[in-house]
Design a protein that fits this description.
The complex is a heterodimer of chains A (126) and B (743). Chain A has 126 residues and is mostly helical. Chain A is built from 4 helices and no strands. In chain B, strand 39 and strand 40 form a beta hairpin. The chains are: A mainly alpha (126), B mainly beta (743). Chain A: It is a multi-pass membrane protein.
Chain lengths: 126, 743
């Protein structure tokens, strides 16, 4: 049963932890990615970092939008990596393996985020 | 480009010129005037007058070695041997027929099987069909491994030889033994009591040499001898039958090879390869520890009478017309290119092929003499009668990348234009360029092109060569120049880290000039391409087998001030503390304006290389039909490798760094260990398919060999490990055979 007043379930806590992880990854992408872009390297990281940070923040706010921002960044990552290295499994490994694993976890949080959103809406209307 | 060039100039002006001025005492004698802000460039010098004289004031940097005229430290003459006398090379007696000239079909009579060093055995009991049944026949323990309190500097790298009833080998610390080839039982062992302090970068003994005397009659002691060069610079001859020292050789069976080398300390200079005997002349080379000081002991090559051990000649690069031993307080000219790879003898032409390395202080070339610049990182064919070069073929001009040649030259015949075979020599290099030369005159048989290289570079007064040689007739044992998209990792996080590392460094390909303002990427690095494992060649099928590395380095020159802060000091500095380890070549380069920092191009937090796999490859090249690649694939699985040094256990053939060569047999099987997955493999010579593999008790960083005993074929590999390759060290020689032939 969803609890009503403040105290969170384990899945909600895990969702928040995931949000923090995504914010940290996103910040690294933005900061180090800006460095890389200024050195003349790929601009992918700094671009991708922005939706990651935003997605993490929205997840912390209990908003489903956060998960979708992450999944959008993941889709962008796949498109970019296929453009950069083609269908080469060895080269797709660092680019997509970790982000996709994280993406599966993020997808699993969508029901949790929905529940949090619903609860907030309910609380808002009571 | 313009911006970075400007930055480089500014950085050089601010960082480099002060130490340059401080070292101006090495300006050529007679140049006069006050210290200048630049060092003499190539061709500006007057040969050996670069080297400090006895009256040169001591260097002013915080750390520095003693004057080259200082006496040798205690223990450098390890066995306190008296000086050896000289004799006229014309008095060398006619050489008896040697086992290595035409070994019995079941023998392995020299480091690379025979005088050709092809690493080819005519044995054929083991085939691609039955290789998967190979089992351990016996294991022999050499007894040499790091004891408690000793830094792990071990990598035995040993290849036994087999002649008649004996398997002869050395331990990593040069003890010599004869084993029963069928059982591994020790027949004799000669301990030479080498000290731990004598170990230079690595405790290695690649092998011993079998020599048959023409002066001692058959049946008498020392008719057949085992010759060995040691880490502590002795040339030792023992009786092949008993292991006793040959009293008639040198001083009671030993020659002190530190004679004439001048100031040194234990571990600075050492021998790790079996010395070849050519027309009765035993030729010795030695490694000089990289990166220590410009005026390190000489890289001189010397010939001795294989019968008496008497000195015959020296090839001292900066004394080209003086082949005698130095007398009194004199020494062979210092800092000259050393040669640490195994040399190859050629009795028919009376030549020894010397693969040379670099002048001392590998990464700074402004203080090298024109004579040194002609012969560094080259194949030098020395006449064994005189010690003079007959020809020189250079593989890198003015090398500042440690692309010294680690491989042994392999002799074979190439089809000539008129159908007559041409005596040829295959010289693999760390660059992955394999040169095929006519061994009569050193002229390329397959085309070699001089191609433009980045020049003049960024270090003032030390311009790079405008061109470098490329062997365009042979498939390159390398991958294309690195790109940012080649950066790898477990995740985008470490990949991003490596991309930044890539972009922060100078990189304009294989000959990126060294820089002090920021790091530069060196690919191929000092680990190869092809390193000391060399190549194997099957003269029946015309197939050449080469294994090679894709292990870039991340290097940076540092100012003298920074080098002092980092505590970089030469090994003969009084403050030097032995132990070191780490990457080879990190060093003070005392006597030059710079020190050098050498690291693998890796993510230092995960210990994973920054570039994408594979990191090691094996290639078969058809030498008879247009030098085409027959097959090529990654060598080594991820089973013993992974992030943070953790073994992943994955059977994925990722291609690991590899050290050590291959053997090819008439049975159509290639044997190779080398990879850091600690396995030995049998590979089908014609298809490249791995038909058998077994896990070794230590890293297989050695050249395997194969021989026959009691009518059956055996395959031996020293699983000695390698400290820098981070594979487990063991003292075990593991010998395999098909079932029912266990010892």
């Amino acid at each position: 049963m969803p609890n009503t007043y403040g105290s969170r379930t384990l899945t909600e806590w895990l969702t928040l932890v995931l949000g923090v992880v995504i914010i940290l990854v996103g910040l690294f992408f933005v900061i180090a990615g800006a460095d890389l872009a200024m050195l003349g390297g790929s601009v992918y990281y700094v671009i991708c970092g922005i939706p990651l940070v935003a997605g993490g923040v929205f997840m912390l706010m209990g908003r489903t939008l956060g998960a979708f921002l992450y999944l959008g960044a993941l889709a962008y990552t796949w498109v970019w990596s296929l453009w950069e290295v083609g269908f080469s499994p060895v080269d797709l490994l660092p680019r997509d393996f970790g982000p996709t694993l994280l993406g599966i976890l993020v997808a699993l949080t969508i029901p949790v985020l929905r529940r949090m959103e619903t609860r907030r809406t309910l609380r808002g209307t009571v | 480009m313009r911006r970075s060039h400007l930055l480089a100039t500014v950085a050089c002006a601010t960082l480099a010129c002060a130490p340059l001025a401080a070292n101006a005492q090495f300006a050529p004698a007679g140049s006069g005037g006050s210290p200048t802000s630049s060092v003499p460039g190539p061709g500006n010098g007057s040969g050996n007058s670069f080297e400090p004289t006895e009256n040169t004031p001591a260097a002013k940097s915080r750390f520095s070695g003693p004057s080259p005229y200082a006496p040798q430290a205690p223990g450098v003459n390890a066995a306190n041997l008296p000086d050896i006398g000289s004799m006229d090379p014309n008095d060398v007696p006619q050489m008896a027929p040697q086992q290595s000239a035409s070994p019995a079909s079941g023998d392995w009579a020299a480091y690379g099987h025979d005088d050709s060093q092809m690493r080819y055995s005519p044995l054929s009991e083991i085939t691609p069909q039955n290789a998967d049944q190979l089992k351990v026949a016996f294991v022999y323990h050499t007894g040499s491994y790091p004891r408690p309190g000793q830094t792990n500097k071990w990598a035995a790298e040993t290849t036994p030889i087999k002649v008649g009833d004996g398997l002869y080998m050395c331990s990593a610390q040069n003890d010599i033994m004869k084993l029963d080839p069928a059982t591994g039982k020790e027949i004799w062992r000669h301990n030479i009591n080498e000290k731990y302090e004598a170990i230079p970068y690595t405790a290695a003994c690649k092998g011993v040499t079998y020599f048959t005397s023409s002066q001692v009659p058959e049946g008498q002691p020392c008719h057949n001898r085992i010759l060995e060069g040691t880490l502590d610079m002795r040339l030792i001859a023992v009786d092949a039958a008993t292991g006793n020292l040959c009293e008639g050789f040198g001083n009671g069976g030993q020659v002190n090879l530190m004679q004439g080398l001048g100031e040194s300390v234990p571990g600075f200079v050492s021998m790790t390869t079996p010395p070849p005997v050519v027309n009765g002349v035993v030729v010795v080379n030695h490694e000089v520890l990289d990166g220590q000081r410009r005026w390190a002991p000489s890289g001189v090559i010397r010939g001795y009478d294989a019968e008496s051990g008497k000195f015959l000649w020296a090839w001292d690069v900066n004394r080209p017309n003086d082949h005698s031993q130095p007398t009194g307080n004199n020494h062979y000219s210092r800092g000259t290119p050393n040669s640490w790879a195994a040399m190859t003898g050629d009795n028919a032409l009376g030549l020894v092929y010397v693969p040379t390395g670099n002048s001392a202080s590998d990464y700074y070339s402004a203080l090298r003499s024109p004579e040194e610049n002609k012969v560094s990182s080259a194949v030098v064919a020395l006449d064994v009668k005189t010690g003079s070069p007959r020809w020189v073929f250079q593989t890198v001009h003015k090398d500042v990348w440690d692309y010294d040649i680690g491989s042994q030259a392999t002799l074979m015949d190439m089809p000539g234009q008129d159908g007559q075979p041409v005596p040829a020599l295959i010289m693999p290099t760390k660059r992955g360029q394999t040169f095929v030369l006519d061994r009569r005159d050193g002229k390329p048989i397959l085309p070699v092109e001089e191609r433009p290289a980045p020049s003049p570079g960024v270090i003032p007064g030390d311009p790079r060569s405008p061109t470098q040689p490329w062997s365009t007739g042979m498939p390159a044992l390398r991958v294309p120049d690195l790109k940012e998209t080649d950066m790898w990792g477990m995740s985008p996080i470490d990949q991003l880290f490596c991309r930044i590392k890539f972009r922060r460094a100078n990189y304009t390909g294989e000959f990126t000039p060294p820089s002090v303002d920021k790091p530069w990427i060196e690919y191929p690095g000092y680990n190869g391409g092809s390193d000391w494992g060399s190549v194997s060649y099957d003269p029946q099928s015309g197939i050449l087998i080469a294994n090679w590395n894709i292990t870039p380095m991340y290097d940076q020159l540092v100012t003298r001030k920074k080098a002092d802060e980092l505590g970089l000091m030469p090994i003969d500095d009084p403050n030097y503390k032995p132990g070191g380890g780490g990457a080879e070549g990190n060093g003070a380069m005392d006597g030059t304006p710079y020190g050098i920092v050498v690291t693998p191009f890796w993510d230092q937090y995960t210990g994973m290389m920054c570039n994408r796999p594979p990191y090691g490859m094996i290639t078969a090249i058809d030498m008879e039909h247009g030098q085409k690649v027959l097959w090529q694939h990654p060598l080594g699985t991820a089973r013993a490798n992974g992030p943070w040094g953790l073994p992943t256990g994955l059977p994925w053939e990722i291609g690991t760094p590899n050290n050590g060569g291959s053997v090819v047999t008439a049975g159509g099987v290639v044997f190779i260990a080398a990879a850091t997955d600690n396995q030995i493999r049998a590979i089908d010579e014609h298809t490249g398919k791995v038909v058998w593999s077994a896990v070794l008790p230590g890293g297989g960083q050695a050249n395997p060999m194969t021989y026959e005993a009691n009518g059956h074929q055996y395959v031996a590999i020293m699983a000695g490990g390698h400290h820098f390759m981070m594979t487990p060290v063991s003292d075990q020689l593991v010998v395999y055979a098909l079932p029912d032939h266990k010892g």
